[in-house]
Amino acid sequence: xxxxAIVERLGADDFLFVDSGQAIELLSALARAPIGDxxxxxxxxxxxxxxxxxxxxxxxxxxxHAVYAIQNPGEPAQRMPYQPHYQTxxxxxxxxxxxxxxxxxxxxxxxxxxLAALLEFGNRVFSQLSGNHQWHIELHQFRIEARDGQLGxxxxxxxxxxxxxxxxxxxxxxxxxxxxxTTIFDLDNNLVGEFMLRETFDMVxxxxxxxxxxxxxxxxxxxxxxxxxxxxxxxxxxxxxV
Length: 242
Prior knowledge:
CATH class: Mainly Beta
CATH topology: Jelly Rolls
Largest sheet: 8 strands, antiparallel
Number of helices: 5
Number of strands: 13
Helix content: 10-25%
Oligomer: single chain
Radius of gyration: 17 Å
């Protein structure tokens, strides 16, 4: 699948699943290097920190966060000074309304060719689709754990919008879990898509202004082993909307 086809399908449907094979091919072409076995990128999820802002008291989420920006057409995304993540309660009724100072993403990930390719991919798709060429970009590394008989909740706020323009969710790893299905709803709350991100680099692109998205809770399979779901969430927002 080419970027022009992705732009057309996302423009028509407001969300798009891209399987790992297609994603790796696209990212490798952008990076001009093989992407699928980038251990520097993949191993970074083993070093996340506990999310201290869970209003439900949950201890099932680990994460790291960073901000990038694209300020001029044709330029690569630039890492910005550390800043907190903020959502209004309109978009996140569970954890919104406060500035959340998450642990920053580590340098190893920032230096990854895979991350650079993902940011370039998002920039090309969303700039072509929207006509906007400047972006405020936030990166969220997540690990959702299922343990001690408790559900892990990838989207504890429920089906939602993030308050941005576009979202990319990239599967990193699923270990010893069941469920975790991605659901897409239109603005009238009709279910319009449901699928599973299973393989590393399976991804979904979402027009956050036109659809809601969520993920069903995960449960562990083998109680004697760790169980988790790792993803990277990348949000793109036009600076005029920040």
